[in-house]
C-alpha cells in the first residue's frame, strides 16, 4: 500500500505538472476561462463514459455536497488564481499556493471527524514547503518588487478553498473513487460553464490543431484521469499526504518546461525535488510509526 500511495502521488504530479505546457498551446486559440470550463466538461464526460463502460453506479445522492466541493475545488479558484496572477510573479503565486497543505493540516480537525494535527503531517508539510522555496529561490533572490496584497490574498483564498474541498471529500461515504471524481467534475463543469457564459461570451474562431489537441488532453487526462487518481489517493493515504501534490506539480512543470525548450535543469530544481520526495517519505514513515505506537 505504501508503494501504491507513492506511485499514485507521482502519477498525479506528472500529469498535473504537464498541464502548463499544454495550457500554453491552448491559450493560442482559446481564452483561459473557456479552457478551464471546457477542460472540466471533457473530464466529466470522460469519467461518465468510463463509469458506464465498466458498470459502476452511484450508491448515494450527495449532490449538494458534490456541488459545494466542485465550487471550492474549481469554480472559485479558477476565477481567483488567474485574477491574482495578473499582478504577481509566478514564483510568488506558486509559493502562496504551496501553503495549501498548511491549511489542510490546520482545518482537518474542523472538517474531518477524529482528525488531529500530528507530528508526521506537520514535519512533512514544513519540509515539503521548504522544497518549494528551494525550487523558486533563484527568482525570489532577484527580488520580486512590491507584492500586491490584494492579489496575494486572492491566491491564498484559492488555496484555502482547495484545502476545504479536499477535506470535504472525506465526508463522501461508500462511493467508488471514479464516481466521486465524476460527480465533482460534473458539478464543477456546470458552474464553470455558467461563469464562462456570463463573463466571457464565446466567440468562434479557427483554432489550431495543436490547441484543440491540448484542450482534449487537459480535459481527458489532466481532469478526468487525474481526478480519479486524486480521489483514490485521498481514500488510501489521507488529505494531508495528497495535498503534497502541490509541491510536486511545480517541480515537474519546471522539468517538462526545460525538456521542451532544451534548457539545462538547474541544480536547485534537483535539490527541491529531493527535498519534496523526502517530505513524502517522512510523512508515510512517521504516520506508520504513530499508528503502531
Written account of the structure:
With 293 residues, this protein is mainly α. It has one domain. It has helices spanning 2-17, 19-26, 32-54, 63-85, 90-97, 100-111, 119-135, 137-141, 149-168, 177-199, 209-237, 239-243, 245-261, 267-292. Helix 1 (2-17) crosses helix 13 (245-261), helix 3 (32-54) packs across helix 11 and helix 7 (119-135) runs antiparallel to helix 14. It is globular. The two termini are 19 Å apart. The relative contact order is 0.22. The mean pLDDT is 83.
Count of helix runs: 14
Query: Could you give the count of β-strands?
Result: 0
Biggest sheet architecture: none
Spatial separation of the terminal alpha carbons: 19 Å
Overall average pLDDT: 83
Structural key phrases:
293 residues; mainly alpha
How would the blueprint of this fold be written?
Blueprint: H1 2-17, H2 19-26, H3 32-54, H4 63-85, H5 90-97, H6 100-111, H7 119-135, H8 137-141, H9 149-168, H10 177-199, H11 209-237, H12 239-243, H13 245-261, H14 267-292
Amino acid at each position: 500500500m505504501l508503494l501504491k500511495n507513492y506511485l499514485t502521488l507521482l502519477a498525479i504530479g506528472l500529469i498535473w505538472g504537464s498541464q502548463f505546457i499544454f495550457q500554453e498551446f491552448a491559450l493560442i486559440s482559446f481564452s483561459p476561462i473557456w479552457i478551464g470550463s471546457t477542460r472540466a466538461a471533457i473530464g466529466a464526460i470522460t469519467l461518465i463514459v468510463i463509469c458506464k463502460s465498466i458498470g459502476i453506479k452511484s450508491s448515494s445522492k450527495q449532490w449538494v455536497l458534490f456541488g459545494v466541493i466542485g465550487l471550492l475545488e474549481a469554480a472559485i479558484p479558477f476565477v481567483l488564481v488567474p485574477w491574482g496572477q495578473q499582478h504577481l510573479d509566478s514564483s510568488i503565486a506558486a509559493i502562496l499556493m504551496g501553503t495549501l497543505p498548511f491549511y489542510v493540516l490546520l482545518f482537518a480537525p474542523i472538517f474531518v471527524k477524529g482528525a488531529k494535527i500530528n507530528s508526521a503531517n506537520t514535519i512533512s508539510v514544513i519540509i515539503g514547503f521548504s522544497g518549494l522555496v528551494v525550487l523558486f529561490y533563484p527568482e525570489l533572490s532577484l527580488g520580486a518588487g512590491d507584492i500586491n496584497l490584494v492579489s496575494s490574498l486572492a491566491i491564498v483564498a484559492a488555496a484555502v478553498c482547495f484545502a476545504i474541498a479536499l477535506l470535504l471529500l472525506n465526508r463522501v461515504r461508500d462511493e467508488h473513487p471514479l464516481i466521486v471524481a465524476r460527480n465533482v467534475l460534473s458539478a464543477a463543469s456546470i458552474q464553470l460553464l455558467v461563469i464562462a457564459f456570463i463573463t466571457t461570451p464565446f466567440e468562434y474562431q479557427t483554432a489550431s490543431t495543436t490547441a484543440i489537441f491540448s484542450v482534449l488532453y487537459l480535459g481527458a487526462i489532466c481532469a478526468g484521469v487525474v481526478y480519479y487518481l486524486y480521489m483514490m489517493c485521498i481514500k488510501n493515504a489521507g488529505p494531508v499526504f495528497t495535498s503534497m501534490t502541490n509541491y510536486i506539480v511545480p517541480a515537474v512543470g519546471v522539468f517538462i518546461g526545460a525538456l521542451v525548450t532544451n534548457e539545462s535543469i538547474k541544480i536547485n530544481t534537483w535539490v527541491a525535488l529531493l527535498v519534496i520526495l523526502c517530505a513524502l517519505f517522512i510523512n508515510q514513515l512517521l504516520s506508520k510509526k504513530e499508528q503502531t505506537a
